[in-house]
Amino acid sequence: MFTQLYRLSIEVDGRYATPEELGFLKFYFETLHVRISTYQKLQKYESIIIQRIQDKLQQINPKILIKGSVNLTSKWRLDTIRILRYSAMTLLINDPDYLQESLLSWFATILQAFKVQDITQYTYKAMFDVLEDYLTPEEKILFFPLIELNLKILCKKSSL
In terms of pTM, does the model score above 0.85? Predict the structure, then answer.
C-alpha cells in the first residue's frame, strides 16, 4: 500500500485522483478485517504451522534438511519463520513490493548460492497444505498469492 500511495502521489501531482486511481484504497479498506484476522492467526499459530511444515518435509525425506554433514534444521526454521513473518506484514500493509524488495530478492541469491531451492520448493508446497487448515477461504484469497510470490522468486534458477 505504501508503494501504491507513493506512486499515486507522483501520478496525481497537482490534481485530484480519479475514482479508478483510488480503487486500491477502497479494496484495502474493504479487506482490512480479513488482513488483520489472517495476520493474527499466523502470529498465534506460527510455531505449530512451522512444525507441521517441517513434519511434512520429514515425511517426504527424513534427511531432507541435511546437506552433507550439516543439519540445516535450525537455519531452515529461522528462514521459514522470517519469510512467514515478512509475508504476514506484507499482507497487512498490502505491499508485495515491500516483500520482494526487502527480503525475497536478496534471500533468493543466498538460496541459489547454497543450492537449496529443492528444499525451498518443498517448504512452500507444504506451507500451502498446512495453511489450508488455518485460513478461511477469504484469508487464503489474500494470503496465498504472497506464498506463490515467495515460491516463484525463491525457487527460480539463476540465469548465470
Answer: yes
